[in-house]
């Protein structure tokens, strides 16, 4: 009897209830969800193939919930309506990041974390999608761009090398590309929809040269592409050719090197070397009692290692150029949580600035200024104010102005 009690009471209640006007239920109709069981991503070409093979449920399951144009987007809209699928809308910020992971190595993580930290700092819903072209071959870059376009992005941050930027210029994508790793002057021709955030090393070297004895300058560098690039820029700026010393051997005997190169008092040394080797060179200059006029370095050595590795006497005549300015405290802290250092890491700083510019333009603000960082854009290149620092009490402090009389007048050549 207990089994029938509830249905009987329900029927009595229905029969006894007075007629009520028909109203729409406040509860929405049920929607369906198609579960994706494949661990592999499916790009626009993969989705096209699924449509051609009439594998509609696989197509719906593997479609990323973003706005795709063309046939793929239209078919998703039609099939979603047919099967009454839930279609979540992304109302927050959307930024695409193109990364050739094999070409730029560890910088892939720095760039992705920088963009992620910037989006987190806004405190709003967001979507960041990373498109890995693996390398910078034309076919792979073209494929990645097509995937970005198919995913509905109008602009993307692209962490490319100089060669990659040139290759991308030849591809001429219609989307806007923001390239934090290359300076506009490094690649010659570039489409109008390309924007750059790389360092202007020649400008840094021009500022540093005001602290140099131009008659007697030695350049220490390494075989790396970046080191050689800075050396080439220095050769074009210094009026008197500098003596080049490439440090190939990690166990170089600096005492013999200084004697062989006749590095003596009054010389200036430009250090295009990584921080650890720079610290070694500076300590050996002190140890060998070589009283140089100045040691100079670009952004390459604006690094906290220079605050701890050398002694105070080693860095007393060291001048370092940097374009990293003050940053938002929240953004700095979020980068720190993601193991980026926005105070010293140039790639993180430039990537954050370009992410901020993309965000502005996503919101319709096309002013040539990155508001969050107080930076201006000129000729599609972010212009970074250059400051010269010295190291005092284990801190980077602004250097005093250079002497009114150039060092090359005050310190003539010595035999």
Report on the architecture of this protein.
This protein has 415 residues and is an alpha/beta fold. The protein has three domains: 39-89, no CATH class; 93-199 and 326-383, Response regulator (Rossmann fold); 202-322 and 388-410, Response regulator (Rossmann fold), CATH 3.40.50.2300. 39% of the residues lie in helices and 16% in strands. It is built from 16 helices and 15 strands. A seven-stranded mixed beta sheet has the order 7-6-8-9-10-14-15. Helix 13 links the parallel strand 9 (294-297) and strand 10. Helix 6 (107-121) crosses helix 14 and helix 6 (107-121) crosses helix 15. Mean pLDDT is 84; it is low at 1-29 and 408-415.
Largest sheet: 7 strands, mixed
Strand content: 15-25%
Alpha-carbon distance between the two ends: 118 Å
Number of strands: 15
């Amino acid at each position: 009897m207990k089994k029938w009690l509830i249905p009987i009471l329900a029927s009595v209640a229905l029969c006894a209830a007075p007629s009520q006007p028909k109203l729409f239920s406040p509860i929405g109709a049920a929607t369906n969800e198609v579960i994706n069981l494949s661990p592999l991503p499916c790009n626009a070409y993969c989705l096209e193939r699924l449509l051609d093979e009439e594998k509609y449920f696989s197509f719906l399951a593997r479609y990323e919930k973003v706005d795709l144009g063309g046939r793929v987007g239209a078919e998703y809209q039609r099939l979603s309506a047919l099967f009454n699928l839930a279609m979540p809308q992304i109302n927050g910020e959307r930024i695409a990041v193109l990364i050739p992971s094999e070409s730029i190595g560890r910088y892939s993580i720095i760039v992705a974390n920088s963009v992620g930290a910037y989006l987190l700092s806004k405190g709003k819903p967001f979507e960041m999608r990373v498109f890995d072209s693996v390398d910078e071959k034309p076919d792979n870059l073209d494929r990645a761009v097509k995937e970005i376009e198919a995913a509905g992005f109008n602009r993307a941050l692209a962490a490319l090398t100089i060669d990659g930027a040139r290759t991308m210029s030849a591809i001429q994508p219609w989307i806007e590309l923001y390239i934090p790793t290359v300076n506009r002057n490094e690649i010659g021709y570039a489409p109008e929809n390309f924007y750059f955030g790389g360092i202007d090393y020649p400008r840094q070297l021009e500022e540093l040269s005001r602290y140099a004895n131009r008659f007697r300058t030695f350049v220490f560098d390494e075989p790396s592409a970046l080191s050689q690039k800075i050396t080439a820029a220095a050769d074009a700026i210094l009026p008197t050719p500098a003596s080049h010393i490439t440090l190939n051997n990690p166990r170089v005997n600096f005492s013999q090197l200084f004697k062989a190169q006749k590095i003596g008092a009054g010389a200036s040394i430009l250090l295009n070397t990584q921080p650890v080797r720079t610290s070694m060179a500076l300590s050996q200059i002190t140890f060998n009692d070589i009283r140089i006029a100045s040691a100079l370095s670009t952004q390459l050595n604006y690094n906290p290692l220079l605050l701890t590795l050398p002694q105070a006497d080693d860095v007393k005549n060291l001048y370092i150029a940097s374009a990293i300015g003050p940053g938002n405290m929240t953004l700095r802290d979020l980068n720190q949580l993601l193991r980026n250092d926005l105070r010293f890491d140039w790639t993180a700083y430039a990537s954050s600035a370009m992410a901020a510019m993309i965000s502005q333009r996503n919101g319709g603000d096309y002013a040539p200024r990155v508001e969050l960082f107080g930076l201006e854009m000129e000729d599609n290149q972010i212009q970074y104010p250059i400051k010269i620092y010295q190291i005092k009490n284990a801190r980077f402090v602004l250097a005093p102005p250079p002497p009114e009389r150039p060092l090359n007048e005050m310190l003539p050549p010595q035999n």
